[in-house]
Design a protein that fits this description.
Blueprint: H1 2-13, H2 29-47, H3 49-54, H4 58-83, H5 101-115, H6 118-128, H7 134-137, H8 150-173, H9 181-202, H10 226-263
Helix pairs in contact: 2-8, 4-5, 4-8, 5-6, 5-8, 6-8, 6-9, 9-10
């Protein structure tokens, strides 16, 4: 009996447990440290991109990295299947289906790195550089789980690994985003929205894509309408995607101008 009690405490309240509200604080060291490490990794990839490209086992590196990303995503559901979705035993697991943008971004990036698909790269680029940045800036989802909990590490891995992988393919393999990636990304979000709308309407605790009123404070000023909320989100995504493209074009144009000046 004593062993059973310790097991329940370990998995429901320990490292794999739910945590306590306020355990993680935004804009703290626990918030900035994973981002700093990700930026450092991107800088190192850029610095040694030629050596990585010429490494005989470079393909194996990509496959291992993709495998780690997939395991990171799967472990979220393995944990939920053991400890349950939360402190409320009646809460439906249907509220935790893999229907979030970050989850599909991670999956797309994994397959992109293994297959070297430039089409998937476009999808990964525009998703990570728009909607993928919001959970990094505002990680409110893990407010109960700081560095003492597994969910903290899984969260940052899920959101930062695809960004690092996307830059890896840019620097090491010379992948470049194309303009057609914008309508492609919007179309993918529309397809994803179909099951999200269904499950949001079917299950009270589901808040997929923040389409349900009251699940995202920034949109609570809107009338309680899934379609109006969706329209506003699509507009916001289009704006972010356009900004991504303009920033990318400005950076590449500046680099080409610097190259021309040095060449002269």
């Amino acid at each position: 009996m004593d062993g059973k009690v310790r097991e329940v405490i370990y998995f429901s309240k320990g490292f794999f447990g739910y945590g306590e509200m306020g355990n993680f604080r935004q804009w703290s060291l626990a918030h900035f440290l994973p981002v700093i490490l990700a930026v450092a990794a991107i800088i190192l990839i850029y610095r040694f991109k030629d050596k990585i490209r010429d490494y005989k086992n470079e393909k194996r590196i990509r496959f291992i990295y993709a495998f780690v990303m997939i395991i990171c995503e799967m472990s979220y559901f393995w944990r939920l299947s053991y400890v349950g979705p939360g402190t409320d035993p009646d809460k439906s697991m249907m509220a935790f289906l893999p229907l979030q943008v970050c989850q599909w971004t991670l999956i797309a990036t994994s397959f992109m790195m293994m297959s070297e698909s430039k089409k998937l790269f476009n999808l990964s680029f525009f998703l990570t550089m728009s909607a993928g940045l919001l959970p990094i800036l505002f990680p409110a989802v893990i407010s109960a789980c700081g560095p003492g909990y597994y969910r903290y590490y899984q969260y940052w891995g899920e959101h930062l690994l695809p960004i690092i992988g996307m830059f890896y393919m840019m620097f090491v393999h010379g992948f470049k985003p194309k303009l057609y990636g914008i309508p492609m990304t919007v179309g993918a979000l529309f397809i994803l929205a179909v099951p999200c709308i269904y499950f949001n309407a079917r299950y009270e605790d589901a808040h997929y894509l923040y389409l349900k009123h009251g699940s995202f404070a920034m949109l609570d000023f809107l009338p309680d309408s899934i379609f109006l909320t969706g329209l506003v989100l699509v507009g916001a995504v289009l704006i972010l995607l356009s900004i991504d493209w303009l920033v990318y074009r400005l950076i590449t144009r500046k680099k080409s101008q610097i190259g021309e000046i040095r060449g002269n």
